[in-house]
Amino acid sequence: MKRKFLRLSFFVIYLSFSSHSQSVNWREIYPGVWKGVVGKPDVYNLLNAADVQPSPALQKLQKAAFPLNNTDISVEVKNGKTYLRFPLQRNEQLYGFGLNFQTIHQRGRIMQLHVDHYGKSDNGRTHAPTPFYISSLGYGVFVNSSKYIDVYAGSSVRKDSKNPPEVQDRNTDDSWSAHPYSDAVEMLVPAEGIEMYVFAGPKPVNVIERFNLLSGGGCLPPRWGLGFTQRVNRLYTDAQVKAEAKAFSDKGFPLDFIGLEPGWQSKSYPCTFEWDKTRFPNPEKVVKEMDEVGVKINLWTNPYVSPDAEIYSAIKPFTGSHTVWNGIVPDLSMPEARKILFDQFEKEHVKIGVSGYKIDEVDGYDSYVWPDVATFPSRHTSEQMRQTYGLLVQKYSYEMFRKNNRRTYSLVRGSNAGGSSFPYVIYNDNYSHEEFITALINSGYAGVLWTPEVRASKTSEEWLRRFQTVCFSPMAMINAWASSTQPWTFPEVAEQVKEVAQLRMRMMPYWYSTFAKYHYEGTPPFRGMSLEDGFGSDLTKEKTATNLEENPYEEATSREVKDQYMAGEYLLVAPMFTGQTSRKVILPKGKWYDFYNGNFVGDGQVITITPGLAKIPVFVKEGGIIPLMPPLLHAPKAGEKVDLEIRVYGKKPAVSRLYDDDGETFAYEKDQYSWRDLIVEEKNGVLKGRISEAENGKPNNFGRVKWHFITKSIK
């Protein structure tokens, strides 16, 4: 009996130590940004892996009140796991939880945030499963863990809920629901504590800005990165690469960088990272020749080391227990592994002028990467390595370019929170045009960039529609590694393809300023409509023209909008998909104009458009100021002046900002950049435009300026 009592006493004591709820002591570390730590969090987390300095802009933000009731936040550490609970009101919608491809609204979803290749159900397994969500009420929550996190985003009801749903009888109540109202976001983290952040708004877009600034701000690509890129067939030779670039030039299609696929390496899957001497006998010469004609070279690779690689023996002690495609996996959390791998990259690639990488297979599927039973010499778990490997390859490859004072713009298959300042764009093997747009919208909530690339098409219509979309995305790219397609593959739409590619180049001053705002202010360059002022419950219902319809969406939270998005400060993009001849566009409150002709189209209404095949529908908000340059075949080089055409939309005075630096180096980090005001003023009843002078000693790469007041009369 005594022994039984002792066992029972021990069990009670064990429970008291292994299960306890803790209050969170939130500390405001920047204006509108609070940090809370509970228990004993893992030392290795997402922000530690990314290892970036928060942007100085955080200190300049306005103070804000803590946006949640702290007493409604529950944290419990139990049996080596941490249980989180955040309050959720009835009128909230949730956004975020990573780079999702099918859903924008995340309320009611159950997910496990887990780095993986594209999945079919938005279950949390994706290329960038960022553990960050944004509320439509204007706050955000970030859980800084490199573990797989289970999320119940308003999908479950506790018996002790302060806001229990009404109990209904399905037999008699037609309004009975299988998913009763839930008043909480709950998460389970397999760790003995957690580090968390809460972000204030007041608007949802301000929440995302603070989150991105905490991660160092958004990336600032080189100008050439915002031009056009062609990824060539996987087995092209140097002669074929040069011929491809010449064909672009001869036909008048812009081209800024060419991507070489696996065949540039002596062996791949696994990789040697060394040039194949039969296809590229003198790589330094061809890289230099291409650079002289304005075309950079980008290299495909994955990080898994072939037994035939020069670095194999040296790096082997610093690799994981399992292989990927028979290649050893460098433990990139270890400085020894990083030095060996990236010294090789620098010597073989960066030093001869290679501009960047396409880093493949750092995401999943489970059967393609190391298993969760793998071990690594750093003693970080395989789970932690899986969640952070994309961050690590971005960070340490990017540092090579920083060391050589040359900016890069590259591609990667996996990322996570903390990586917004890395100049990498995510891509994958999915090829649904519609889901490309959903992912582009979600990238703005996740703190990453995503490209809806063009590969192949069944018809000329599909080809053109896809091409139009990529020219209004972070990276305008054809990926012809398997198909060998070119912009003119469908001759019947070749001129329209050329026109939209030239428009991409003409808009480079706008795109470059948009990315500068991403870098300095954290504003996502491409983002969902829910982040736009005047979109949602305050949409008007008036009908002012025959093509304007009553808006059926009374609440922004009631229906997802997955087929239109904002590009930069002023542009609303509404892509057309194959087979569509017309579509509806939801205009936020305020006057909106057709991008191409300046005609007024509506104010806070749903319009139906029939745009034809030649152009992607784009609309500009009142006061939009869009700087354009001539349609060059290559991005301007450092010090090259370009003339500007500045388009003005609307009938009111307005101000915008135009960014400038050398476009190639990191001199902007040493104050070698300028913001110039684009000012529209009314003088004697007439709108006039002027541009502020560049400061002495600051970059000034603009020549003549022509103002174009494009808006026609308003009916």
TrEMBL record:
Domain Glycoside hydrolase family 31 N-terminal: 77-147
Keywords: Glycosidase, Hydrolase, Signal
Annotated Glycoside hydrolase family 31 TIM barrel domain residues: 220-513
Gene3D superfamilies associated with the record: Glycosidases (3.20.20.80), glycosyl hydrolase (family 31) (2.60.40.1760), Golgi alpha-mannosidase II (2.60.40.1180)
Leader sequence residues: 1-21
Ranges of residues in domain DUF5110: 644-696
Superkingdom to which the source organism belongs: Bacteria
Region Disordered: start-end pairs: 157-178
Composition bias type Basic and acidic residues, residue spans: 157-173
Segments forming domain Glycosyl hydrolase family 31 C-terminal: 554-626
PANTHER family: HYDROLASE, PUTATIVE (AFU_ORTHOLOGUE AFUA_1G03140)-RELATED, MALTASE-GLUCOAMYLASE
Family per record: Belongs to the glycosyl hydrolase 31 family.
Name of the protein in its database record: DUF5110 domain-containing protein
Lineage of source species: Bacteria, Pseudomonadati, Bacteroidota, Cytophagia, Cytophagales
